[in-house]
Amino acid sequence: MRRRTFLLSAAACAVPSLSAAYPAQTFTPAIWRDLRGTDQTVVMNFRASWSLTCQIKSDLIAEALAENPAYTNLTFVDVDWDTFGPSQMTQRLKVKRRSTLLVMKNGDEVARLVNEPYARKVRALLDAALAA
Questions:
Q1: Rounded distance, CA 94 to CA 119, Å?
Q2: pTM for the predicted model, two decimal places
């Protein structure tokens, strides 16, 4: 391994994550039943704790929430991919991989973002969620 690559990797691990500032409920079937029956706009974040792409997306959501207070009107739910990835729910929602953001309202899909950890894409998804 090259020294520069190792040092950059070590520095990236030492930087604290912003996702602690990201207010999300942890997915359970009971929470999903309750939210699905309401008119709330729900942003489901299918993520794995070990995935760098998922962590980047969580950090981008936290940054967007800090910059635009209107996003706090959305309900965020983190879905653990290792637990619910192979479930019937993900099959019904056609979620094929972790690092998927899915916006739902009244049980219908409004927007989807799959494996694109870019600030402009995440903000566009959140804007679509607000417009729903």
A1: 24
A2: 0.80
Among candidates 98, 87, 95, 84, which has minimal Cα distance to 52?
Answer: 98
> Which of 43, 47, 41, 48 minimizes the C-alpha distance to 23?
43
Q: What is the pLDDT of residues 11-69, one digit of tens each?
A: 445 444 444 457 899 999 898 888 887 889 999 999 999 999 999 999 999 999 999 99
Q: What are the distances in angstroms from CA 91 to CA 18, 70, 84, 88, 96?
A: 30, 31, 10, 5, 8
Q: What is the CA radius of gyration of the chain?
A: 15
Closest CA relative to residue 132, chosen from 28, 41, 58: 41
Structure tokens at 65: 């929430």
- What letter represents residue 51's amino acid? S
**39 in helix, strand or coil?**
coil
CA distances from 6 to 3, 10, 11, 53, 98 (A): 5, 6, 9, 19, 26
pLDDT at 6: 46
